[in-house]
Amino acid sequence: MTDVRLEGITVLADDVAALTAFFRDALGLRPAIVENDYAAFEGEGVRFAVFSRPGMGPNTHDHPDYRMPRSGQAFELNFECADAPAVDQLLAKIRRLGGLVVAAPVQTTWGHYSAFFADPEGNIHSLFAVLRD
User: Fold this and answer.
1) What ranges make up the beta strands (E) of the chain?
2) pTM
């Protein structure tokens, strides 16, 4: 059997420029490539990118799913912060830059301080910090 490695995660967007700007400005991700229909961010490990939803049609032999309006949650990105105050600060910045707070921060039973927000495309993601004794 051949080893398989997860190389990248691509978020599909109706407005690539706006979602790229949100991830750049709200979360501090640095774009490495910016094109009309595609953006990829710098980072170690798994590549994170944004691609045009309509642009996926030609790449998938015009699969009908890419012509339909997006509905429902299909994935979640998890962003780890250094500590609980950093979660609060970043969540406030996300709100100022067009994100919607879906769930205010709480201390979880598994030892995290977690909050959830929606990006401008409506995708819901988490911010968290591992609580240390």
Assistant:
1) 8-13, 31-34, 38-41, 47-52, 78-80, 100-107, 112-118, 124-130
2) 0.84
